[in-house]
Amino acid sequence: MEKTKIKQQQTTPQDSPWSVNQRVKMLVWEYTWMLLCSWTPKPFNAWRLFVLRSFGATLYGKPFVHQRARIQIPWNLIMHNKACLGDRANAYTLGVIEIHENATVAQEVYLCSGTHAFEKKSMQLITKKITIEQNVFIGARAFVMPGVTIGAHALIGAGSMVTKEVKANTIVGGNPAKWIKERVLE
Fold first, then answer.
1. Quick check: 101 and 135 in contact, CB under 8 A?
2. Could you report the per-residue pLDDT of 105-127, keeping only the tens digit for each?
3. Residue 42, C-beta contacts closer than 8 angstroms, at least 6 positions apart
4. What are the φ and ψ backbone dihedral angles of 119, each rounded to 5 degrees?
5. What is the pTM of this model?
6. Residue spans of beta strands (DSSP E) within 34-113
7. Residue 35 burial (CB < 10 Å; 0-12/13-18/19+)?
8. 105 closest CA partner among 120, 90, 124
């Protein structure tokens, strides 16, 4: 598990945790995605993957990224073969987000890998890796908090708030997400 990363350059809540170079790169990314990818039809996935790779995303095999998916910082995104980032899903990749094989992040899911050190005056940015293991399904409009690992074959109910680890082969749902039952696959 990746350790929590605290951005040390913040001395007040108003300071940016990002260097000028990083901010410029993020701005170029935002406009590149808008101009070259956000309007493309679904079959242009290979093009969107090419653009993501050009900005440092780590992509294995052929994942699927919907044209209206939002990716904050592509160089913090790792996707494996046949992983899916759905329509208007938000990968808020302030820290690393890894989506393994055949995992589906449905429409409007919010994956948030950043929070703040609320006990400090500076409220520095803290990033924690989100890991979505293979064959996971995350239902529409679910919210996944920083540092969460979702185990293989787990199912997250639509609209759920995932605040802690989800064990493999389980179904969870609600706010906060709670165990519902084991997921039995045939």
1. yes
2. 999 999 999 998 888 888 888 99
3. 66, 67
4. -80, -5
5. 0.92
6. 58-59, 64-65, 70-71, 77-79, 84-85, 90-92, 97-99, 104-105, 110-112
7. exposed
8. 90
